């Protein structure tokens, strides 16, 4: 099926063998859509796109709530040879204007409730067609319903683009990462094997599908394995807990696990499960340990990014080491480098660089940015700082841009955060550097206290005496109710640096 289309041929291989296999399960554990059905829906989407004039290589942008129709749109775009471009639903009109202006899609699909607001934005960007997609309505659904399955997949080669995903822009303006058919196919095949997904698996799919984690990792693995999923519009701890008795795997961001730990009956509910995967942001060792105590399962932490898909993973069999992101995946090379790209001696902290078929093809219409980050010899400078321990486990110590240089000394935020988090009365913390007239940057710990804890600078400072070198100790503790996080659970350090910029001046 679809043999001329590199990615679709691979993603649909399981559906070809067992089209009747369940893809989507409802609350009664009944199959509501089979693998064959989902591809039929995708074929009708592809026919819709072609009727609207979408040609191979055209971008198809969508900003809509999570739905099966949106998944069909993704697969339909692949079948039509188009480039799928999902946008975070949180983006406001001004941000959408930037993405549409940059990517120049032929078609933009938006939430029906935002049509009036976004129409002028789409018009200004020269978008040819604006359609809508809601939970069970919208002009795209109407158009899809009037098409019949049987679309002949457009031929696409391994290097052709399948998607553009804009980076979350936590350190600057969003860039469009161009992802080829090969990059997506190779990474999902690797992960399916590494995490041992089979047709018997039932995945709890509670991640958003505008991001690499939910769109590619979760969805592509389910398709490839011929597995099924419980598809949730949004993460809700109670719903996820209730689904566990009929599921085998969960993919989540650390916040999922933190929230689930507050639910009663977690240990019992998790009995049926075989795998809990976490990524997109660091999972605290404490969360890992507590999860293990409550459920008996060791959360499997992996590390990836929009530009690279997944790079490393803790092992499926063997020790899943808390606070680490495991080993480079098969087919992925990883090294710890200095700024020039030379490999550092074992055990040192440096910039992580990666290479493999999983990598993006460059930033959309930003050749200079691409050249800055993607070396000619194929190594990508991730911007993450890390180290490899003597057993080969990769540790991430933070984003390069989050590194603090205080009084000429490097301070790695994660080390300070771990020390602060271990103090009594602290729930969690984020450590940042802000301008300081004497030291260049001063270390600041933004702390979320435990309920009822005493918010005292002096006691926290005293607790760190002897724990950390003086230059690493925060010069100021700021107390907040919660840390600012984006929808993938990433702490927004840039935002905090801006907020506390004047603390020492
Ligand atoms: P994104 O492109 O939005 O997926 O963000 C990618 C970034 O998230 C990476 O460059 C890392 O800084 C961070 N990240 C992803 N997974 C992990 C992890 N398991 N531990 C720590 N940081 C992570």
Concise structural overview:
It contains 17 helices and 24 strands.
What does this structure look like?
The chain is an alpha/beta fold and 505 residues long. Among the domains are: 35-156, Rossmann fold (3-Layer(aba) Sandwich); 404-499, ANL, C-terminal domain (GMP Synthetase, Chain A, domain 3). The chain is 31% helix and 25% strand. It has 17 helices and 24 strands. The strands form seven sheets. A seven-stranded mixed β-sheet has the order 10-9-11-12-13-14-15. Helix 3 packs across helix 4 (68-79), helix 5 (93-103) runs parallel beside helix 6 (115-124) and helix 8 packs across helix 9. It is globular, with a radius of gyration of 23 Å. The N and C termini lie far apart (65 Å). The mean pLDDT is 95. The structure holds adenosine monophosphate (AMP). Adenosine monophosphate binds next to strand 13, strand 18 and strand 19.
**Low-confidence stretches at least 5 residues in length (pLDDT < 50)?**
none
What is the number of E strands? 24
Strand order of the largest sheet: 10-9-11-12-13-14-15
The major pleated sheet works out as: 7 strands, mixed
How many individual helices?
17
**N- to C-terminal distance:** 65 Å
Q: What top-tier CATH class of the domain at 35-156 fits best?
A: Alpha Beta
Supply database-style keywords.
505 residues; alpha/beta; Rossmann fold; GMP Synthetase, Chain A, domain 3; 4-stranded parallel beta sheet; binds adenosine monophosphate
Topology:
Layout: H1 6-11, H2 13-17, E1 22-25, E2 31-34, H3 35-51, E3 59-63, H4 68-79, E4 83-86, H5 93-103, E5 107-110, H6 115-124, E6 129-132, H7 139-145, E7 161-166, E8 176-180, H8 181-194, E9 202-205, H9 212-225, E10 228-231, H10 237-243, E11 249-252, H11 254-260, H12 266-269, E12 275-278, H13 285-295, E13 300-305, E14 309-313, E15 327-328, E16 332-337, E17 350-356, H14 367-373, E18 380-388, E19 394-399, E20 404-406, E21 409-411, H15 413-421, E22 426-436, E23 440-449, H16 457-464, E24 476-479, H17 493-499
Parallel strand pairs: 3-4, 3-5, 5-6, 9-10, 9-11, 11-12, 12-13, 23-24
Antiparallel strand pairs: 1-2, 7-8, 13-14, 14-15, 16-17, 17-18, 18-19, 20-21, 22-23
Helix pairs in contact: 3-4, 3-7, 5-6, 8-9
Bound molecules: adenosine monophosphate.
Adenosine monophosphate binds at residues 167-168, 212, 279-282, 301, 303-306, 325, 382, 384, 396, 399, 488.
């Amino acid at each position: 099926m679809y043999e001329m289309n590199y990615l679709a041929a691979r993603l649909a291989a399981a559906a070809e063998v067992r089209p009747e296999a369940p893809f989507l399960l409802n609350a009664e554990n009944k199959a509501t859509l089979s693998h064959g059905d989902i591809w039929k829906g995708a074929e009708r989407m592809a026919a819709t796109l072609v009727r609207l004039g979408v040609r191979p290589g055209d971008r198809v942008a969508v900003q809509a709530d999570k739905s099966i129709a949106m998944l069909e749109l993704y697969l339909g775009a692949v079948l039509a040879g188009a480039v799928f471009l999902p946008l975070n639903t949180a983006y406001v009109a001004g941000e959408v204007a930037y993405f549409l202006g940059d990517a120049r899609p032929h078609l933009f699909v938006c939430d029906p409730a935002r049509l009036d607001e976004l129409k002028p934005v789409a018009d200004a960007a020269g978008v040819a067609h604006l359609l809508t997609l809601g939970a069970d309505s919208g002009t795209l659904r109407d158009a899809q319903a009037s098409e019949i399955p049987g679309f002949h997949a457009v031929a696409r080669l391994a290097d052709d683009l399948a998607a553009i995903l804009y980076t979350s822009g936590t350190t600057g303006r969003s860039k469009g990462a161009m992802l080829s058919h090969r990059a997506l196919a190779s990474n999902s095949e690797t992960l399916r094997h590494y995490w041992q997904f089979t047709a018997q698996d039932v995945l709890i799919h509670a991640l958003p599908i505008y991001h690499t984690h939910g769109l590619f990792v979760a969805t592509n693995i389910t398709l490839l394995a011929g597995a099924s999923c419980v598809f949730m519009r949004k993460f809700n701890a109670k719903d996820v807990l209730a689904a566990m008795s009929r599921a085998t795997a969960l993919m989540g961001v650390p916040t999922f696990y933190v929230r689930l730990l507050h639910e009663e009956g977690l240990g019992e509910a998790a009995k049926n499960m075989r795998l809990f995967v976490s990524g997109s942001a660091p999972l605290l060792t404490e969360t890992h340990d507590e999860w293990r105590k409550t459920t008996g399962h060791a959360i499997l932490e992996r590390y990836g990014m929009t530009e690279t898909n997944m790079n490393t993973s803790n092992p499926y069999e063997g020790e899943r080491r808390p606070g680490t992101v495991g080993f480079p995946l098969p087919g992925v090379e990883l090294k710890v480098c200095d700024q020039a790209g030379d490999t550092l001696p074992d055990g040192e902290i440096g910039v992580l660089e990666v290479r493999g078929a999983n990598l993006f093809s460059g930033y959309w219409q930003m050749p200079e940015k691409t050249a800055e980050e993607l070396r000619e010899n194929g190594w990508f400078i991730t911007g993450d700082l890390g180290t490899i321990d003597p057993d080969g486990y990769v540790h991430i110590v933070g984003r390069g841009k989050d590194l603090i240089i205080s009084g000429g000394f490097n301070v790695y935020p994660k080390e300070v955060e771990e020390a602060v988090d271990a103090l009594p009365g602290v729930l969690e913390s984020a450590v940042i550097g802000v301008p300081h007239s004497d030291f260049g940057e001063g270390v600041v710990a933004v702390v979320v206290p435990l309920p009822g804890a005493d918010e005292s600078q002096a006691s926290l400072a005293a607790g760190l005496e002897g724990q950390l070198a003086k230059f690493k100790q925060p010069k100021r503790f700021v107390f907040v109710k919660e840390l600012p996080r984006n929808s993938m659970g990433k702490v927004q350090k840039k935002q905090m640096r801006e907020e506390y910029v004047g603390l020492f001046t």
